[in-house]
Give the backbone structure.
Amino acid sequence: MKKIAVFCGASNGYDPLHYEVALEVGNTLAAKGFEVIYGGAKIGLMGAVADGVLANEGKITGIMPSFLQTVEITHTGLTELIIVATMHERKLKMHELSDAVMILPGGWGTMEEMFEMLTWAQMGLHSKPVGLLNVNGYYEALKALCDNMVQEGFLNEFTRSMLLTSDDISDLLEQMTNYIAPPTTNQIEEETT
């Protein structure tokens, strides 16, 4: 695991802790020698992650759809910036360039990116670890929803275990480093029979 795609918000949120943790994530990933792949913006938590990586002389690649260059305000100090045509291409390129996925707080876009990565893992399209950093309990409701999906029979424990969670960046990185993807073929067959 050398390259980590980070999905997070293009805003700071109301709690300053979110920004501080995003900056710390960038610092930590660079200090540990990980290359970061992210959405390319200089604003919000995305910008904080990038600034943290760059402050520690780490490598960071931004993937920015051309139509968002003026909306999200592209970060100009990146190691590399790749311009793509669509949001779909952005996700696909981030997936192609990364060995793992980390999710920080965010809104609809962050949720959509996370669930697509988890769905691809469930279908056996990749075996990358997907880690959720639960900053100040931000994702407690999501964890409860995932547990409810299991209780209601729409998700099995096997698949639920694909989403690694922690409120500590070092612990989450350790879980991601030690992650062994469960086999998916039998699971899909069982769910469709």
Q: What stands out?
A: The mean pLDDT is 93.
